[in-house]
């Protein structure tokens, strides 16, 4: 997939999907799949127009807590057979009028012949543009507009906000179903306090990316993805009250056989199941005993087997 970070004249007619696509959830996937199918059927290239950081963050909104890194999002687009991604800086567009965005950018510069968006898509300065205005402006220039209807699951609309709330409440199975893949935290492994090694439970440590959604503090069944391979693991998200840790930490103990130096490597930690809330223990020995109980219970529930046989098949 070609990644384009500056607007310049395109000469190949294309279909464009518009949106921030936080999480690339099942609703987003329906929209993007419709776009790529239309592109293929009509001999057009397929493209996504999105932003490198959350518009909500630039506008100071609480929904700035994102569900995935931009690297993960681009990987998802690529897995969905998108030909190119126009990855823009939101601040360069926040004062562009709706009419200018459609006429000068989408149609005249990016050579859009068909445009796809969600039912609640907004665009232009002060988010003044609606799907109706987008259709009106595009169709006057002979450009088709396809608006994707809401996708519902369990009687409610699938949205990034709904998924964010599920994650913040530790409801990982529900969140992951809507995402069609496990929610993950990706980052470079940092040196920790080494307390886990003292009780035979060595851990790898990561920090949540800036402006990232904060999962409910506690213990999770997880996968650690290292060099493309998944390892069963158990993860604590929180402030580590037993050892007086600093900052919000993602700390994982790998359960499968693993031998290698991973400091400085990028690891993706996939959260599968919320086991219990984080709490303070009298000492490290008591913490270790509880972790072993957590592992035994998670194994009894066969969480890893459930994910290996289901959710992961559709994810990116």
Task: Identify the notable features of this structure and list them briefly.
single chain; 316 residues; alpha/beta; Rossmann fold; Elongation Factor Tu (Ef-tu), domain 3; 2 domains; six-stranded parallel beta sheet; six-stranded antiparallel beta sheet; 10 helices; elongated
Descriptive notes:
The protein has 316 residues and is of the alpha/beta class. 30% of the residues lie in helices and 26% in strands. Strand 5, helix 5 and strand 6 form a beta-alpha-beta unit. The mean pLDDT is 90.
Short structural summary:
Helices cover 30% and strands 26% of the residues. With 316 residues, the chain is α/β, with parallel strands linked by helices. The strands form 3 sheets. A 6-stranded parallel sheet has the order 1-4-3-2-5-6, sandwiched between helices.
CATH topology of the largest domain: Elongation Factor Tu (Ef-tu), domain 3
Q: What's the helical proportion of residues?
A: 25-40%
Q: Looking at the chains present, what oligomeric state does this protein adopt?
A: single chain
The largest sheet has its strands arranged as: 1-4-3-2-5-6
The total strand number stands at 14
One letter per element, helices H and strands E, the order comes to EEHEHHEHEHEEEHHEHEEEEEHH
Given the helix and strand composition, which structural class is it? alpha/beta
- Per DSSP, the total helix count is 10
Tell me the fraction of residues in β-strands, as a range.
25-35%
Main beta sheet strand tally, sense and closure:
6 strands, parallel
Low-confidence stretches: none
Number of domains: 2
Rg from alpha-carbon coordinates: 22 Å
């Amino acid at each position: 997939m070609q990644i384009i970070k500056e607007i310049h004249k395109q000469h190949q007619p294309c279909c464009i999907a518009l949106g921030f696509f936080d999480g690339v959830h099942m609703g987003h996937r329906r929209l993007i799949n419709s776009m790529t199918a239309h592109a293929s059927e009509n001999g057009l290239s397929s493209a996504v127009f999105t932003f490198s950081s959350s518009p909500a963050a630039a506008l100071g909104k609480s929904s700035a807590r994102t569900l995935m890194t931009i690297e993960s999002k681009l990987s998802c687009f690529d897995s969905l057979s998108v030909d190119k991604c126009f990855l823009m800086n939101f601040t360069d567009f926040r004062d562009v009028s709706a009419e200018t965005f459609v006429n000068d950018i989408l149609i005249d510069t990016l050579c859009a012949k068909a445009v796809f968006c969600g039912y609640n898509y907004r665009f232009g300065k002060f988010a003044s543009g609606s799907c109706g205005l987008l259709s009106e402006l595009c169709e006057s220039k002979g450009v088709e507009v396809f608006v994707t209807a809401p996708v519902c699951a369990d009687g409610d609309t699938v949205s990034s906000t709904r998924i964010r709330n599920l994650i913040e409440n530790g409801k990982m199975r529900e969140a992951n179903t809507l995402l069609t893949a496990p929610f993950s935290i990706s980052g470079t492994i940092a040196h920790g306090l080494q307390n886990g090694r003292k009780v035979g439970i060595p851990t790898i440590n990561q920090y949540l990316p800036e402006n990232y959604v904060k999962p409910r503090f506690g213990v999770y069944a997880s996968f650690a993805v290292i060099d493309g391979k998944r390892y069963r693991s158990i993860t604590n998200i929180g402030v580590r009250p037993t050892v007086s840790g600093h900052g919000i930490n993602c700390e994982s103990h790998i359960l499968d056989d693993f031998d290698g130096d991973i400091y400085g490597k990028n690891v993706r930690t996939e959260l599968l199941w919320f086991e219990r809330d984080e709490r303070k223990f009298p000492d490290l020995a008591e913490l270790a005993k509880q972790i072993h109980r957590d592992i035994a219970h998670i194994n009894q529930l066969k969480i890893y087997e459930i994910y290996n046989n289901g959710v992961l098949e559709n994810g990116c």
